Amino acid sequence: MKTISRRFANRSGELMSLCIFAFALSLVVHVLSVAVAWCAAQSVDAPFPFWHALLLLPPVLLIASVPISIAGWGVRESALVLAFSYAGLPRSDGLIISVLFGVVILVAGLRAFAVLGPRELDILRRTRMPGSALLARWLASGRSTASPAAAGE
What we know:
Blueprint: H1 2-43, H2 50-64, H3 75-87, H4 91-126, H5 132-140, H6 148-152
């Protein structure tokens, strides 16, 4: 037990700096998400100041991250419409901004997958985790809408 506590004591400074770094990166990601939604609002001429976005978007994104829908679609829109109505902003603008935000995030994810996809498939093939080879075969087989289990048969 003393050995473990000594190891932890020797690395506690490293752990604290890693935690601060992770927290800072998290803040940057959230501010960038707010900026993307604000840019979507500006593209449709919605009356949505940046400080409103800073206040309304983080709770909406937290609600949208609850795993009850695919990528938060539907939940994010409902939450942003509700947030807009509480803030006294037009509800229709909330829906439009939320859909535009979702489309921008989807397009960015697809572009990232186009760049990183082949490399990640190779990593999945070499990983010895259960089901990773099956998932890699399913993804490499054209990414059909069938389930991974059906692709392995």
